[in-house]
Amino acid sequence: MRILHTSDWHLGQYFLGHSRQAEHQKLIAWMVEQTRLHAVDSVLIAGDIFDTGAPPSYARELYYTLILALRDAGVGLTLLAGNHDSVAVLEESRHLLTALNTVVIPSVQDDPNEQVRLLTTRDGKPGAIVCAIPFIRPRDVLQSIAGQSARDKQQSLQDAIHAHYQALFTLAEQKRLELGAHLPIIATGHLTTVGASASESVREIYVGALEAFPTSAFPAADYIALGHIHRPQKVGGLEHIRYSGSPIPLSFDEARQQKEMLLVDVSTNGLERVTVLDVPCFQPLLSVKGSLKELEAAVSAAASQGETVWLEIVVCADDYLSDLQSRIQTIAEDLPVEVLRIRRERSSALNTLHRQAKETLNELMPDDVFARRLQTETIDEETRLQLLSMYREVVAQIGEADAA
Ligand SMILES: [Mn+2]
Q: Which residue has the higher pLDDT, 212 or 250?
């Protein structure tokens, strides 16, 4: 059977004052067309379908448009929650969506059988078994043990995630035996693995608790469809463990990436091949950098693309220019560009903190801000992890007090 693997759509992303609605509309139409052209049987979305826990109405509408369009195209859909998704939001329509050939897994389920699903081909034949694993929250798989050190907590979480994968894989093997056909087994995940390279818009999800999951801890599935990292990549050079990456660039440092979706062919022999589908760019995005003089040339080069380009301008200048904004306005005037952000490049660690805070404070969680602040201190790893976990406990206590 042929599966299309994608992730990290971030429907509803509000990007420096701009909505991505038009891009996502075009993306849905493009993907549905690809499923027809390439005779895709089933689509897997490995987390972060939404950008926030409270997606705006237009984002929810896009979500339902996507689901209906795939149903009309006769393609199955399995959708896993990511760290940006709200469990409650995905849960509310989940049962309704089963009527539209869509399986949604918002969180680790009490009954593990819920997460072991048979994928069928367009003509209804069994094609593969999927261990449908969403983003795993520590509280889903761990009981907190008093007095555990940060390092022990990290190890317990990794062990618990490993155990979850192993348990579902064993169930999938049993299911395969019962079905009496040597069906391929696919697993999914939404996490950082060792060696994966991230980008600006990816939040560290297990900071201080689990930094990266070793590839050797995955079960022996024929293919592992991952989400969370926005740059498409094979993990550890392995053909069968992959991040599809996000289909549109979600930050300026992703602007030069060719975005992808993956066509995954599996059969009773296991993984047959993976074919990369290049996703067209629906809204050009570019970051240009230089001195004011160099920027003039760089901006007009960027403007020669024909469509309006969303620009980030990084000015390399040590001297303080109070009229920087208006100088850049003059450069960009009358060109088909829209300047979304201007920033100055500085070097020291504290300035980096200021810059990062300015860039993304509106999408950072309190945790991230604290973690960034710690980065500017010269402390050893052990202390850093301890401080982070103490900070978390305090925040959790405040949260409990609020709820009470
Ligand atoms: Mn993401």
A: 250
